[in-house]
Design goal:
- The complex is a heterodimer of chains A (117) and B (112).
- Chain A has 117 residues and is mainly β.
- Helices cover 0% and strands 56% of the residues of chain A.
- In chain A, strands 2, 4, 5, 6, 9, 10 and 11 form a seven-stranded mixed sheet that branches. A four-stranded antiparallel sheet of chain A has the order 1-3-8-7, with no helix packed on it.
- Chain A is globular.
- The mean pLDDT of chain A is 93.
- In chain B, the strands form two sheets. In chain B, strands 2, 4, 5, 9, 10 and 11 form a six-stranded mixed sheet that branches.
- Classes of the chains: A mainly beta (117), B mainly beta (112).
Chain lengths: 117, 112
């Protein structure tokens, strides 16, 4: 159990266009999902916490108008990179959270490699 | 800003060798420390959640220890196999927050 899918796994887009990435919890409901970004040789950096039915909470330095997050159902959160630029090229990965016994666990998707040309 | 560091950054070992790596994290406001294994092109897989000082957890040939007073955790792999090749991530969970702060990982390559 606790499988999270993420689509697409990779995408190439032209500068100025928008790209949507989907994160789905396949076999459980997740009231909270998380979006991370990873630069080469660096750690996963939390971008935002996505809460079902309410606005996402963005980390300091993350532009909420640039990275639109929608969590419309208990199994789906989307990240839209608007007006993408080459500096947005990165690896984006989501996780879905749930209680696993006494602990709160995050279960990850496989990630999306975005290249903006 | 929470500082979570992992060392070494990368490691090559021969099949059958045992190995270990370190995660250091803030010793104050500790709630939990997570270990994940991340194979290329796959999702990070949860290995352990550690919460108590002195905790030791084991899963097959992989084990982990926790020292919350000094702020470090060790991950051990006994008799490494090529299928153990992956990046091992630790993540610090402060207070009762649900957010995780990740280290940059240790990339392990086990040579046959």
């Amino acid at each position: 159990g606790a499988v999270v899918s993420q689509h697409p796994s990779w995408v190439i887009c032209k500068s100025g266009t928008s790209v949507k990435i989907e994160c789905r919890s396949l076999d459980f409901q997740a009231t909270t999902m998380f979006w991370y970004r990873q630069f080469p040789k660096q750690s996963l950096m939390l971008m935002a916490t996505s809460n079902e039915g309410s606005k996402a909470t963005y980390e300091q330095g993350v532009e909420k108008d640039k990275f639109l997050i929608n969590h419309a159902s208990l199994t789906l959160s989307t990240l839209t990179v608007t007006s993408a630029h080459p500096e947005d090229s990165s690896f984006y990965i989501c996780s879905a959270g749930r209680l696993a016994g006494p602990y709160y666990e995050q279960y990850f998707g496989p990630g999306t490699r975005l290249t903006v040309t | 800003i929470l500082n979570v560091e992992q060392s070494p950054q990368s490691l090559h070992v021969q099949e059958g060798d045992s190995t270990n790596f370190t995660c250091s994290f803030p010793s104050s406001n500790f709630y939990a420390l997570h270990w994940y294994r991340w194979e290329t092109a796959k999702s990070p897989e949860a290995l352990f959640v550690m919460t108590l000082n002195g905790d030791e957890k084991k899963k097959g040939r992989i084990s982990a220890t926790l020292n919350t007073k000094e702020g470090y955790s060790y991950l051990y792999i006994k008799g490494s196999q090529p299928e153990d090749s992956a990046t091992y991530l630790c993540a610090f969970n402060p207070g009762s927050a649900r957010q995780l702060t990740f280290g940059s990982g240790t990339q392990l390559t086990v040579l046959p």
